[in-house]
Design a protein that fits this description.
Length: 142
Amino acid sequence: MKVFKHASAIWNGTVPAGTGSMKLGRAGEVLPFSLKSRVEDVPMTNPEELIGAAHAGCFSMALSSLIEEAGKVPGTVETSAKVTLEQREDGFWISEINLITRGSNQDLTSDEFVALAEKAKSTCPVSKLYSSAAITLDAALA
């Protein structure tokens, strides 16, 4: 099975002074971005935040699936992702993604939850895609 999802972006002007927008899905929300939104704390989004959201979403679903496969009832899995953009000699890199996940209403011990979270970190499709970055995990029951 193959599933195709769509997103698009447009950029206008030079990188320092220009602006762009990213569109999620075919008729989805349009999100403005700029260089400032990538390197400063301004009220726009940026590619790194979208990468973090995609990773947190995929990871949470993968962990819930593993909990269900273990014969347990998945409760709530809440995950945040901190994406590090780093300038190196050869350009900018996403060097690290820190996942923080908390499970609540889980039918698991703390050790079981952490073990399944570690498995989800290595098997979630977005983790596989971003494997060139160091991916860390802080997992615990709430």
